[in-house]
Amino acid sequence: MAVIDSFKANATSVEFTWPVELTGLERIMLSAHGDLQRLLSAFFAQTISIKPIYAHTSPRTHTASPEDPLLQRREVHLLCGGKTVCVATSSVTLTSPLCERLFLDEKFAIGQMFRKMQTPPQFALIDCGIRFENGTNALWRRYTLSTEGFECDITEVFPDRDMFVQGEKWLTVDCASAHVDAEESSKQRYAASAVLVTV
User: What is the pTM of this model?
Assistant: First the structure.
């Protein structure tokens, strides 16, 4: 069931069948729609930067259009204080020349695309949960963001739920080990996604 984010003149409601183990803060992060970097920056009180891991783009033999979209499969890590706080793997569909230029040439990240275009994205949370990974309980979600000319299907993994309990302290705990684990997992995902993107 996709998330239902509705409002009336004097009421707002976010409805989703959430896993019962989730905390309120985790539900807030999982409901972020194009502004996760901003929310994480506020939570950790530090800058969140994007580290590109890979990007496989379909051949640019034409300008992006609804009839001939350009596709990109990519992975980025969201870093705070040198530690990976989120791994985002995305499939992006570009169907306008403006979005093609901003995303592929000017290298705007997904969240910044919506801010640059000054248009809020349509958001749909498809699924989320908790899984045991690399010795920790990881939080994950799959969702879509879209606006005219730009559509994204994104899976994000927050490597350790403890980050939402410990906050800034979590950033200093065993940073070297977490970095090696994130890099190794990325290498495996990169090898699996190295198939050329075709339209």
Answer: 0.84
